[in-house]
Amino acid sequence: MSAIDTILKTVAENQKDAFLKLFQTIEKHIPKGFEPCIAYGMLGFVVPLSIYPKGYYCKAQEPLPFISIAARKNFITFSHMGVYANPELYQWVTTHFPKYSVYKLDIGKSCIRFKKWNEIPLDFIADLVKKMSVQQWIALYEALYLKDQ
Question: Which one of 56, 68, 122, 129 is separated from 48 by 20 to 30 angstroms, measured CA to CA?
């Protein structure tokens, strides 16, 4: 059973279509090298250990996380670690989101919450996930999080 099939079993029926479209958009547009998996109870896209054997600094035996999505009771979340780590990318998100959606951006440090899950701006997601390659994410991750190790 694939990661998406496993996670879809936990998604509320009224959210499944939107969640699946979000996953498919990410999968279609994410740069080569990232792989889907289940991480921390969410559907994630990670840098696999075959590409980055050092793994995640908190848990070296786990692949380096990048993007994750989850269905919650009242919203669907999209988390992008590059948005958290790169201020320019965060700025791009906050500046460009209104060009793709009539709804107000609901964002934390890396997590965008979509309360109107049937109206997730998939073109925005497609453009955002294309903005960082595996190599760029590894370099940024190492520069920010492994500088003292």
Answer: 122
